[in-house]
Design brief:
about 350 residues; alpha/beta; 28 strands
């Protein structure tokens, strides 16, 4: 198999993840003990052995331009990585066109807030021009759907359909056997000015390819997780802790500390007279004293004292000072380096 390019668009502003994304790029937000980007990169471990892989991150000018290269250099120095800046947000197709010098041969496009469970090993023998990963959902109207004929061929992608009839949602992961064909389709999309509110969507470029005779099929996934909002990230945290990423899986009670699994607690965290769990992720260097933490994420070096939290997201180095751990739990969303006294 020729060199496989993995394209990860990350240039969005991350507004639905505020205030966490005021100070860090959205892929670097924590969930179940690691960053969302760590989880995304784990997905690619099933790529056929021996495949030469290059990563292309499309980054924005606000935080990603500096933070993502630094993160990859520190944590994944062995990977071959390129970075492309999208300075103006003109949509997905525009982002990919900016990276066109890398878009030749086989490639995957995976959006940074998409976490799926799939096996990429079949790519070594894939004959289709394209593959779209899909999942059936109860309400497809917030997403894009794939129209598929009786032969299993994708005939059209529809962004945010008004109808509920087609529930086959495209989950933000695509394979193209020849990236240059997508670049040509994007050029044609722009020539036709197929845009919405000033943004060029990838689905419209793919529709150009389909209309030109490209054969695309679907690949179903059973698990599709999202880190695009605080609520979705907490839901993803619950799922991941339930499925192998908890390091506390048995109920514990000793020395004033009660652990209700599943829970992730970093080895460097300091827990004193507290109840942790279920579904809590406690990052490196955190300090939790005389508190109850349930269904929440505490990022690295966060501190919570005398408080009860549930459904909360506490950013890096943030501090929460409560009044009593026996009060009804609070739901807080506090960004990095913030301080809240209740």
């Amino acid at each position: 198999m020729p060199t496989l390019k993995i394209i990860v668009p990350t240039a969005g502003w991350g507004t639905r993840m505020r205030p966490q994304t005021w100070s860090k790029a959205k892929p670097l937000v924590s969930v179940a003990g690691k960053t969302a980007l760590d989880h995304l990169l784990d997905t690619f471990k099933t790529i056929p052995a021996g495949t030469d892989v290059e990563y292309v991150f499309i980054v924005g000018p606000y935080l990603g331009e500096n933070q993502l290269p630094a993160f990859m250099q520190e944590n994944y120095p062995g990977l071959k990585v390129h970075f492309v800046l999208q300075a103006v947000m003109r949509g997905q197709s525009d982002a990919l066109y900016l990276a066109r010098r890398y878009l030749d041969g086989p490639m995957l496009i995976v959006f940074s807030d998409t976490l799926i469970q799939t096996d990429f090993s079949f790519l070594a023998h894939e004959k289709a021009d394209g593959v779209a990963w899909v999942k059936s959902v109860s309400d497809p109207r917030r997403f894009g759907v794939a129209e598929v004929n009786k032969e299993g061929r994708v005939t059209r992608l529809i962004e945010k359909p008004e109808s509920m009839e087609n529930k086959l949602v495209v989950v933000g992961c695509y394979y193209f056997r020849e990236g240059a064909d997508l670049v040509k389709a994007i050029k044609e999309q722009v020539r036709r000015d197929h845009s919405r509110k000033g943004e060029f969507f990838l689905t419209d470029a793919i529709n150009v390819m389909l209309a030109g005779g490209a054969f695309m099929r679907t690949q179903p996934v059973a698990v599709w997780l999202d880190t695009g909002t605080i609520e979705a990230t907490l839901e993803t945290n619950r799922y991941l802790l339930d499925h192998g990423l908890a390091n506390k899986t048995k109920k514990e009670s000793q020395a004033g500390i009660e652990i209700i699994p599943p829970v992730f607690i970093h080895a460097s965290a300091e827990i004193v007279e507290a109840v942790i769990g279920p579904y809590a992720s406690i990052g490196a260097g955190c300090k939790v004293r005389a508190s109850r933490i349930q269904d929440s994420i505490l990022e690295d070096e966060a501190e919570v004292t005398t408080a009860a939290l549930k459904g909360s997201f506490i950013g890096r180095r943030a501090r929460v000072q409560g009044r009593s751990a026996v009060d009804p739990p609070l739901t807080l969303n506090i960004g990095d380096d913030s301080s809240v006294e209740l």
